[in-house]
Structures are given as C-alpha cells and as structure tokens.
C-alpha cells in the first residue's frame, strides 16, 4: 500500500475523459518509476448533484481532507444553469477550497514555444512568457458575510462582502515571496487601494511581510486595473503576481489567455502542511468543463496531466519527476501531435484525447 | 452668453496641458461653427488638495451640478500617494461621479486603423475593433457601506461591501440597450453570478429589462473571468458590454489596452436628464495623469479632445459636429503626425502636445 494517496474527482463535461488519461500517467509513474499512488475516485459538481442532490457530499468532503492530494477535472454545464445558487456545481469546488483552507492558488501562465502562434498576441509579446499568479483562494468576496439577495423597501438588493484579515493576507503574501525566491525573485501585488479599504490593508500587510522577512525579494504594487492593462501590453515584465480572490479570478484567466493555449494550463491550490508535512492540496486544469465537446474524445488532456505534474512537485517532493513529465508533454507538442484545440497549424498531426495520452506516455 | 455651459477641471499631471488643447478646440467650434460655450475652470484632485486641503471643494461640486457638462483631465500622482484615503486625488473624481449620480460610464474601445500596429495583439485581432463598454459607475463596491479597516480580535480587517439594488442595475441596463440599438444591436452582460449573489441579481434584472422593453436587442451573459478571456482572445465578438463598477474598471482598461493606443481613448459618464433635457455628464480621457511626462509637452491630447467630441454628441445633441471632430483626429493620425506615445513607427512626424492640437485644428 502506497503512502501517497490521491483522490480523483473527474467532475463534469470533459473532466472524466481527460482524467482517464491522467490515470494512465499516474499508473505509469507507479510501474516505471516506483512512485506508487493509492488512488480513489469520487463525484463532484453536476455529477454529484445528479447522484446525490448536492455538488459535494459530506463523505467526499471528509475523504478530500484525508488524502495527500485531490485531482479535479472540471465542474459545471448548461444542464445545471437553472439550479439554485446553493447547489450549483461550482459550490462543490468552492466548498473544497474553503474547508481544506487552500489559500494559495498557483496559476502559472506559461507560453509553450511550439504554441506561441496560437496566442492572439504578437509572438514577441508572449514567446517565452513564464509568470506565476498567486491568487488568494479562501476569502474575500467569494466567502464574505453578509451575502444574498434581499427585499428592501420594495425592491431586491444583491449583497456581497469583501473581507480580508491581516492573517489571510500575510499567509498568501508569504507563499508568493517563497515562490519568487525560487524563480525571478520579483513579486508584484495587485489591488485597488485607491478605491477599496480592503486593498489599503492588502497593500499594507504585503509591505510589512516583505520588510520583515523577504526584503531580498523585489516588491512592487499595482492597481488591479493597471495590472490588467500591463498584462495585456507587456506580460513579460512580471515574475510572480499576488492578488486577492476576485481580482485573481479575472487576472489569472486573462494571463492564461495570453498564452493562447488554455488546454495546456494547470493549477495548484495549496493550504497548510498536514501531519505528514505535505500541504493540503487540490490540482485542477484551468480550462472548464467544455460541455460542447464533452464525450467526443476531442478534449486536450495536457492541462490535467500537467496538474498532476504540479502535484508531483508540490505534494510529493518529486520535482524531478514533475520536470520529466512536463518535458514529455513539451516534446509531444514539438512533434506537432495536437488535439483539436491546437490544430489549425500546418504539419500538425491530429490526435484524440486518448492518442494524446498515448503520446505523452510514449515520450515518458 | 451661450446656453451651453462647460466646467473644465484639468486636474493633475498631464491634465492641464492636454486640456489647453481642448480649450482651443472648444474655441474653434465657437468661432467657426457657431457653437459657443460658456467655459469656466476649476481645480480637482491633487491640485485642489494643494490649494484647499481637499480633492474637491463644495463650491466646485456645486458648480459641477449646475453646468451642462464637466470636462476632466486626470487626477493623481506619486506626490499624493501617502495622503490619507479620504483626501486622495481619486476621492475628488469619485465624489463627482457619486453626487452627480453618473451611473452610466461609456468607454468605447476603438482601434484606429492607422494605429493598429501599436497593439500588443495581432493586427487581424484588433483592426477595426469597435466595442462600447457600459460600466455602472455610482454603486457596487466603490460606494457600498459598511467599509473601512477595523481592529477585530487583535488583528486588522479590511472590509468593503458590494451592493446593488434592482433600480441601479435596471437603469444602466437600459442605457446599454439604448446604445446597442444605435450600434450593432447586441449586448453582453458580465458578472460572477456563479459565485456572487449580487451577480445573480444583476443577471436577473438585466434579463427582465431585456424581456420587458428590449427584446429586439440580442442579449447574452458571460462570467466576468470568461469575459476577460474572450476580450483577449477575440474582442470583435462584442458590440456593447454592460457590467458593474469594479468589473467595469478592469474590463474597460483591458479593452482599452487591446487597441494599443491609450492616448486616444475618451470616456463619457452620464446621469439622469436635467431640467433642460441634457443629461448630467462628465467627460474624461481614459489615460491617467502620467506624472512621468507631465509638463514636458509630450502628452497626447487626442483622448481629451475626443472626450469633448463625446460631449458634443451626448450633451449637446451635436452628433455631426462630434463626427467632424473625430474625423479630423483620424486624418491627423493618418498623416503620421504623432505624439511620443505613438511614434516608434517609420515615416511618422513627431509632434508636441501643442503641435498635435494645431494639427487637429488645421484639419477641422
Ligand atoms: C468555477 C468558478 C467558481 C471558479 C472561480 O470563480 O473561482 C473558476 O472561475 C476558477 O477560477 O477556478
Ligand atoms: C482613478 C480611479 C479612482 C478610477 C476608478 O477606479 O474608477 C479609474 O481607474 C477609472 O477607471 O476611472
């Protein structure tokens, strides 16, 4: 029995089919590299709602708390659009983030050389791009109370609360500074301190943490709207960006789209260390459930495979194995083997989801 | 005495020098087109703080309420960064927006043909781009209460409130639908209804207003993060975008940067009709105060000149004169006359702020 436990939650849409390929990659590491995993599987999102009337059962939640890492495919789809807010597929994912206290969402935006032409941006603007967005994931307006739609003076009022404590800001700032030290040693913090007091506190605390423990890292601050502009204008100016939950949602998606290949981008959501020293962790591709192509073998499994690579690096202290996997994916791309999302290019070889998995395993 | 009154607030940084050129354009319309304006001038932002210890005096506020339109240059600068939140230059602008109840911020993102190569995006992605972002400007997290930085259980907590009433959403939705009818007849509404209840209400009310009075306009909905992605990927898919104050802040700046020429983009902020039928209105360029180049005659006055063109169209019912001015600016660009921000291109003729103003007036 392996001491490395994984809970796989394929979810909705293309989640299950891309996760099938990840399962094969996981098995490969067990067979060939002596890195065995105890893998279990369960439901999340619409799939869980269909089976149990809730997007995440208490039993699944408890299981997620016990394992070393959760691997999630994607949640959501038009089938669930009319559901009440409280049982929407997204609530399953948000509950996992909140109850596992996964406060640091790592969203690399990397432009693969072989794919730079897929970007809507000019090649010179994005080729070689490699930035890391660290998004706070367990607080802010996503979880602040009070919230809801209320009746007030004869009309409806929609309410949400953006709330950050000093401790919440400090811990995600630390995560960003730590990452920066292992990269380009620069952090840019983004908020709207010119308009929001939560942003004023954000800037203050990031500055304090920096002065106290990370003065060796270069720190700058930018308003989030200017950040959106600068990401669009010249993204290579950034190394690590740290920002709150809502700004992080928009800015990390924007950064992802700069690379032109959403089907390639993984993410990690990390919390505090558990008793065994491993952090609470959930890994998931940046792309969504893509219901329009689900079940047709067209989905690109690379983002989900690369999410497993992040798990190797951040949960299982197997950075070299992670790099091995990442390089295998890069070699497959360089050979022109492509799923439909990356296909409209000369000399490319079309591949199904399964064939893409085959190619990665062959490269390994 | 003209019955068209304008209050000019040059503000900080490059505000005064670009506004000088606008003043000359305004005078030209009086002299040559019989469109006289009663122009007064006053302080806002850091300039007002320096003179009066507040970024907007009550007297200036009262004056702004009386005139037909306010023209604002820009506010802010590093000199004022350390000021308390309550007297920062931005508060002057925010007070104008709030007390004049300028709920509809019109932010066109247009790519001038002569400038398409300045974009970081590929020419084919942005050439001919013409979208209109309608941002709610007087509510949401910018103004919601409670707000502040508090001490709680021995640590600081930063708090802001996102709050929208049905009426606030409905009126900006109407503004967007009305504009769409005079353009491509399509509106895309953006929020985070999958995460925020204020977004749930936003989507509901926009849908209701559409069904009741604008069923002839094509309406779609998008989550704001997906919106940021789609704006980056293929912005020409949009005609009018309507969104809240904070999402609008980021998304309109992102859209502006797609065009590659921030120095060209105007904006209008409109409120309810006054007794004379004209809407409360404030016009300002999208660019900021650019303190690094202030006072050097390098600033591009076009965005501010085009803001006056929007005033002609939306405040003074002079759409043809607005078009005349817009076309004059386009012809100047086509001739290659450029301020420094748009200069690194072969065959361009460098121009100072003043020379750019001269060129526009000559073209008129
Ligand atoms: C699915 C949704 C709830 C989620 C979010 O808003 O956080 C997604 O957009 C993301 O970025 O992971
Ligand atoms: C200057 C600032 C307060 C303002 C805002 O956040 O609204 C600006 O970014 C804008 O978009 O007009």
TrEMBL record, chains A, B:
What Gene Ontology terms describe where this protein resides (cellular component)? Answer: cytosol
Start and end residues of each Isopropylmalate dehydrogenase-like domain: 5-360
Q: Which UniProt keywords apply?
A: Amino-acid biosynthesis, Branched-chain amino acid biosynthesis, Cytoplasm, Leucine biosynthesis, Magnesium, Manganese, Metal-binding, NAD, Oxidoreductase
Question: Quick check: keyword Oxidoreductase in the entry?
Answer: yes
Q: Give the E.C. number(s).
A: 1.1.1.85
Origin organism of this chain?
Rhodosalinus sediminis
* List of residues binding NAD(+): 77-90, 288-300
Q: What is this protein called?
A: 3-isopropylmalate dehydrogenase
Pathway given for this chain reads:
Amino-acid biosynthesis; L-leucine biosynthesis; L-leucine from 3-methyl-2-oxobutanoate: step 3/4
Positions contributing to substrate binding? 97, 107, 135, 225
Broad EC category: oxidoreductase
Summarize the protein's role.
Catalyzes the oxidation of 3-carboxy-2-hydroxy-4-methylpentanoate (3-isopropylmalate) to 3-carboxy-4-methyl-2-oxopentanoate. The product decarboxylates to 4-methyl-2 oxopentanoate.
């Amino acid at each position: 029995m392996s001491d490395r436990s994984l809970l796989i939650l394929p979810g909705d849409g293309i989640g299950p089919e891309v996760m099938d390929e990840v399962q094969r990659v996981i098995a490969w590491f067990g067979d060939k590299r002596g890195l065995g995993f105890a893998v279990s599987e369960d439901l999340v999102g619409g799939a869980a709602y269909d089976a149990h009337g809730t997007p995440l059962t208490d039993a699944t939640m408890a299981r997620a708390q016990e394992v070393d890492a959760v691997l999630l495919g994607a949640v959501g789809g038009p089938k669930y659009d009319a559901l009440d807010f409280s049982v929407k597929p997204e609530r399953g994912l948000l509950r996992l983030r909140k109850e596992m206290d996964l406060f640091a969402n790592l969203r690399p935006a990397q432009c693969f050389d072989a794919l730079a032409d897929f970007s809507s941006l000019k090649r010179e603007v994005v080729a070689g791009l490699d930035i890391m967005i660290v998004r706070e994931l367990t607080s802010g307006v996503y979880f602040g109370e009070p919230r809801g739609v209320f009746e007030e003076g004869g009309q409806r009022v929609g309410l949400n609360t953006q709330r950050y404590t000093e401790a919440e800001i400090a811990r995600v700032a630390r995560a960003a500074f730590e990452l920066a030290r292992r990269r380009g040693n620069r952090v840019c913090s983004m908020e709207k301190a010119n308009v929001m007091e939560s942003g004023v506190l954000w800037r203050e605390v990031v500055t304090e943490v920096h002065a106290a423990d990370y003065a060796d890292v270069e720190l700058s601050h930018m308003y989030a709207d200017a950040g959106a502009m600068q990401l669009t204008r010249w993204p290579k100016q950034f190394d690590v960006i740290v920002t709150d939950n809502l700004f992080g949602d928009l800015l990390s998606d924007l950064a992802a789209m700069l690379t032109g290949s959403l089907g390639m981008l993984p993410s990690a959501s990390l919390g505090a260390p558990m008793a065994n020293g491993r952090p609470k962790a959930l890994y998931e591709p940046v792309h969504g459930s893509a219901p329009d192509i689900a079940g047709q073998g067209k989905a690109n499994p690379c983002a989900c495979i690369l999410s497993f690579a992040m798990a190797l690096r951040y949960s299982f202290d197997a950075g070299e194995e992670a790099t091995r996997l990442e390089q295998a994916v890069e070699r497959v791309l360089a050979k022109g083997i492509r799923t439909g999302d990356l296909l409209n290019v000369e000399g490319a070889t079309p591949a199904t989801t399964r064939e893409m998995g085959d190619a990665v395993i062959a490269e390994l």
